[in-house]
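Today's session is about reading a structure prediction critically. Students often jump straight to the picture, but the first step is always the sequence itself: look for stretches that repeat, for charged clusters, for runs of hydrophobic residues. Only then move on to the predicted structure, which in these notes is written as discrete structure tokens rather than atom positions. Here is the chain we will use throughout the hour.
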Amino acid sequence: MLYTPTLLQRGTPAVDIDNNRWRAVWLDQANAITTEEYSALLKARFERLSAWQNYTLSQWQATQSQQEELNVAIREALINGKEGCCNSDGDIQTTQERLKRISTAVKYAWEAYRRDALGYDEFRPLSHSGTNMTRQGIGYFVADVLDTLWLVGLQKEYAEARQFLADHVTYNQTGAVSLFETTIRVLGGLLSAFHLSGESDIQLLHLADELGTRLAYSFETDSGIPPETASLQHQKHVYAYQSSTADISALQLEFRYLSKLTGKRRYRKYVDKIMDIVLKAPKWGWSCDTIRLGSRGDSYYEYLLKQWLQTSQTEPRFRKEYDAAMEGVKKYLVAVSPNQNLTFVGELLSPHNTNPEFSPKMDHLVCFLSGNLALGATQGRSLAEMSPLELSVSNREDLILARELAETCVRMYLDTASGLTPEIAYFRWTNPVTGAEKPFDANTQLVKPGGDILVHALDRHNLLRPETVESLFILWRITGEAKWRDYGWRIFEAFARWARLPDGHGYSNLLGVTVMPSQHTDKMETFFVSETLKYLYLLFSDSSTVLLSRYVFNTEAHPLLHFTWNK
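Below is the predicted structure for this chain, in token form.
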């Protein structure tokens, strides 16, 4: 049965629609602005009781111009199809050349590590050495980059890395590791590689199961909340003194998927108990002095949405909590700079007070939010494959905010001398109540004359992080707009120019991005290969490569297949 798009209520999925038959109808629907519905949404948000009696701040809303720009993007997506704007022979050749460049960059990084530090958990490219987190090492680097080697077509290197894990890595050892980092990097990497093998490489699953068993010792606390550090040997009466929101709420995708693959329900039980506690906890039952979407908070919001997506949208409590959180972000944390009109997500200081302070500070980590908002708006589907009426008013707003945040994150790169972002940025900001601009700090540098992005002296470094290119990849897949690829390529070229070490020694972090050339630091993060280069490669790949509507990426960019629980 075909559902007629003209009869759809906004926000209703159009099941089994013949795309070509209804494309003209969809194009007409793309002209709608939904002014009355959006006004009602804003009215409800503004009237919602504030958590702070004395906190007054202008609340963000999408402008008429931004609504119209989204409609243009929707129309272009419908006209161009899901592969986007770039289908000429010249465009295809350019895309293939860029894929080759990125694949070569992955190989360059891997070969440096293999030659100088194979088997070590972390790589020191300047000293040509490595370090371990335990005496024997846990395959931290190798497991994290394994699926990247597969996806970019480096089969020889993949086989070498996989064999190293099979022959040399065991988790039956003494030592303590970060529960969060080991889960997202090592466990996530093993699970993703197992799936990419066609779920035939049982040795990878056995390794994941062994690691999962040992990490799960940390869940055996009186409260069910694990400590941040996990012992690989069983220890009774583990006590969690204090754990961050992100650290305990970003283990779920990996352990739930491990539970699905192995049939061992205890893995799911452990992490579901954590979410039960978190979602039912009083909103003030936390020890914090800042509300932010940057470090130690980011992955909590990311995994709210992704747990809902992972189990094929069958657990609505996660989506409900995610939507409520995004309402709070829009109401309290989103602001716009005065000169460049950059939309950013700030922080709320002293939230336990009746009058908290807004800080116009945004970690680069927050740039994940752009992609997350877009993913939530369409559930990973391309705008070219859906009726515009399938987007609820709230989802339209999320897509607008996603596009605006992505533009800001790109400016954090392109406005600097290096074309690379600082770790943390501050923004010029005018208090809407007093009309006064927040004064500059004495150690603050304006990265562009007349611009709005400020950098403190201690925040000028760059760790080759992935969050912006992650969002560019998701926005490209959903909208098909050429600019997201163009931005991504400029960022890749800046990495290639400034972070690449000569003579085959890989890449390294940078001490500063505002004055070039910059000094290198003696570290190449695993996430540069496992996330940054992977997302850049996927940005230029065919849309069928790791479909966003069928896979969810964990916070370390390891793709995990959607599934449903057996009843």
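Discussion point for the tutorial: The chain is about 45% helix and 10% strand.
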